[in-house]
Amino acid sequence: xxxxxxxxxxxxxxxxxxxxxxxxxxxxxxxxxxxxxxxxxxxxxxxxxxxxxxxxxxxxxxxxxxxxxxxx
Length: 72
Description:
Largest sheet: 2 strands, parallel
Radius of gyration: 13 Å
Number of helices: 2
Structural class: alpha+beta
Mean pLDDT: 78
Number of strands: 2
């Protein structure tokens, strides 16, 4: 499940993803969180960060491979 978030809010995240043709890849759109709470510490190992500019010419499959290279 993929969620897209942005500092500019949920509507900004949606419009940015749609502009790049990636809107259908995401389950939802959120404002960028300042705090994440989880019952398991993840230390960023289970979270991939990609800037939208890195995804503009990639297919959804290529985005996943770029985000999680060890799973590809």
